[in-house]
Design goal:
heterodimer, A: 312 residues, mainly alpha, ABC transporter involved in vitamin B12 uptake, BtuC, globular, B: two-stranded antiparallel sheet, 13 helices, 2 strands
């Protein structure tokens, strides 16, 4: 009965969309990298760096959208590093990705400590305010969930749509998908495998950082340690869950967010159950989703395979 | 830009490239120290002094290196077979959990049978923790990178749940902490008056044992073959799935032992901050050692030294100790790049 009340409440669905937004942004970033054939395990750290740099820019007095821009540029810089090491140099994508995560996380924490040496409570900024769309936001349940969110949430869905359109409806998207399946064929067409992959990693990493910035600029309004808390790894699971397709990945993010929003609301209803079990739920479900989906998913054929001209 | 293999690379190149990687690491550290308004050379000096400048500092470094030897070995073994175990953190806590459950009074034995029993329990718990993701990989093709990573979060929440529930020490006011291990469940110090416990020697023994397994046994040969080329290994009749499962047991067991030595050797009671990321740092340790089990000992001491030295440097100079993490991540990335450039050269076009 109470469960039904939760599922019918507008605030629940608004929370689902809100929780899904950073995941959608970062998942699209990872999906673009992987469709081009590069696994980007830097995602967790790049999200931390994006969360910090976006917040820090605004804390220093920049407008909110400049904060988003700062996160984007930070992410692209780490993407350039990741891409240079994994694409032209062809180094292990596992090792480089984990190295980037360590580097980006530590860099954000170092910069935070440097800028604010002696703070116990993290300073707050004024985050993005809700931007209700006239008319549409009045629709019961659906209105508050979809049309009374912040600008960054609208951006997340716009990015997902753009990713799908570019991947499936443009020559660039065709080339990107091909470079993740059969790079030699792309090369034979006179296109640069290195350029396409490097570009995908840079753009994808930028999106991951914007996903991280959502946490500080739209959700929590301050930066604190451990705030990304595995969201990046969840996004990697969502790419697999979505079978490397943007639409399905968005559905996965919404599903994941629904469980997350639900576990918070179920906690007070079951006071005898340890709260940690509820917090585990999203991670356990991600693993289960991977098990179910991995059997059917079509992995990009050249994922994690470095391309060297003339070698097979 | 393309890579051109170098037929036989010169000694200068083979030594110069890793040296350049270390120089890059030092340069990154110095630049960041300057950014913090400190004297770069003084900061590097303080790190070195804090890591090895006194008997106390050196022993502190060796103590910190002890769990890293085990997690480094765990990662090295797994990565050698291209089993991407990023979950050493979870396996470490599983091992520690087994030790805390059995060593706080459940088994009231004397030290001689108790310590080996606890070590075995930790090995078993760590091995089982990695066996799950390994079975999922072998049977269903589920990517182990993501499952082992996600499992770290599940395990930490599980430990937190037990520490606030059945394992909670009733005498610890509010703080989630297990009861203290029995005196006989503690690893003794190597010599009286020496602040270094037996875990370090166990680490050295484990490194030699793992080296022997990798270099001298069929399993080691099969693990390397599976890591080199999975299809070729399968084609030549190596049971790839079974080898990966055995690798997982070995790797998870080693990470479980890291939990045992840290809990029974250093901490004495289980808390949620038993490991400040030893499982993740094990990846850096293993990669800097080029996945060589004996090299892991050296690189664990180096990595521990950077952490211990940076802590002490931070207290003296006010430069944030996260400098250590940045330097080690730079060391990892520049070292893999340097090794690539000893075998290939970059050409235009």
């Amino acid at each position: 009965m109470e469960l039904l009340d939760i599922l019918l409440s507008a605030s629940f669905w608004a929370a689902v969309v809100r929780i899904a937004s950073p995941l959608i942004l970062a998942t699209m970033g990872e999906l673009i990298c992987e469709r081009a054939g590069v696994l980007n395990l830097g995602i967790e750290g790049i999200m931390v760096a994006g969360a910090f740099s976006g917040w820090f820019a605004v804390y220093l007095g920049a407008p909110l959208w400049w904060g988003v821009g700062a996160a984007l540029v930070t992410g692209m810089a780490f993407g350039l590093l990741h891409g240079t090491l994994t694409v032209p140099l062809g180094l292990s994508q596992h090792v480089v990705g984990l190295g980037i995560t360590l580097l980006a996380t530590a860099a954000a924490y170092y910069a935070y400590r440097l800028a604010l040496p002696q703070v116990s409570t993290p300073p707050r900024i004024t985050p993005f305010a809700a931007l209700p769309i006239p008319g549409l936001s009045r629709i019961p349940v659906l209105g508050p969930a979809l049309f009374a969110q912040t600008a960054l949430t609208y951006l997340a869905f716009a990015v997902a749509l753009a990713t799908a359109v570019v991947l499936y409806r443009t020559p660039l998207g065709l080339a990107l998908r091909a470079v993740g399946e059969n790079p030699a064929a792309v090369e034979a067409q006179g296109l640069s495998v290195t350029g396409l992959r490097l570009g995908a990693v840079i753009v994808g990493s930028g999106l991951m950082a914007v996903g991280g910035a959502f946490l500080t600029l739209s959700a929590f309004s301050s930066f604190f340690f451990e705030m990304v808390n595995g969201r990046g790894w969840v996004c990697i699971a969502l790419v697999v869950f979505g079978a490397w397709r943007p639409g399905k990945a968005v559905l996965g993010a919404l599903l994941f967010a629904a469980f997350d929003a639900l576990q918070i609301r179920l906690q007070p209803l079951a006071p005898g159950v340890p709260y940690q079990l509820f917090l585990m739920l999203p991670f356990v479900l991600s693993i289960l989703a991977l098990v179910v989906m991995s059997r059917r998913a079509r992995v990009p054929a050249a994922l994690m395979v470095p391309y060297r001209r003339g070698e097979r | 830009m393309r890579l051109e293999p170098i037929a036989d690379s010169s000694a200068a190149r083979r030594l110069g490239m890793p040296a350049a990687a270390l120089a890059v690491t030092a340069a990154v550290g110095m630049a960041l120290a300057a950014l913090a308004g400190a004297d770069p050379f003084a900061v590097l000096g303080l790190i070195a002094k804090g890591a090895a400048g006194s008997r106390f500092a050196l022993l502190e470094t060796l103590n910190r290196a002890t769990p890293l030897i085990f997690t480094g070995l765990a990662v090295a073994v797994a990565f050698r077979a291209k089993l991407w175990n990023i979950g050493a953190e979870a396996q470490l806590y599983a091992g520690a959990l087994a030790v805390a459950m059995l060593g706080t009074g459940t088994l009231a034995w004397p030290a001689a049978p108790l310590l080996p029993a606890l070590a075995l329990a930790a090995v078993g718990a760590g091995a089982l923790t990695l066996l799950g993701p390994a079975v999922l990989k072998v049977r269903f093709g589920v990517d182990e990178v993501v499952t082992t990573l996600l499992f770290n979060f599940v395990m930490l929440l599980f430990v937190s749940m037990l520490l606030e529930g059945p394992l909670k020490d009733p005498l610890a006011l509010g703080w989630p902490q297990s009861a203290a291990l029995l005196g006989d469940a503690r690893l003794p110090r190597i010599a009286t008056g020496l602040r270094l416990h037996w875990g370090f020697l166990l680490g050295l023994i484990a490194a030699v044992a793992v080296w022997a397994i990798m270099a001298r046994t069929t399993l080691g040969f099969e693990m390397r073959a599976v890591g080199e080329n999975r299809e070729a290994a399968a084609f030549s009749g190596i049971p790839v799935g079974r080898v990966l499962l055995r690798t997982a047991l070995l790797s998870g067991g080693l990470a479980g032992l890291a939990g045992f030595v840290e809990l029974a050797g250093a901490k004495g009671s289980l808390t949620l901050d038993l490991s400040p990321g030893f499982g993740y740092t094990g990846i850096i340790v293993a990669m800097l050692a080029l996945l060589n089990p004996l090299g892991v000992v050296v690189s664990a001491i180096f990595v521990a030294g950077v952490f211990v030295g940076a802590d002490s440097m931070s207290r003296a100079s006010g430069v944030p100790s996260y400098l250590a993490d940045i330097m080690l991540a730079s060391a990892l990335l520049s070292m893999v790049t340097a090794l690539m450039l000893t075998r290939y050269r970059l050409r235009r076009g």
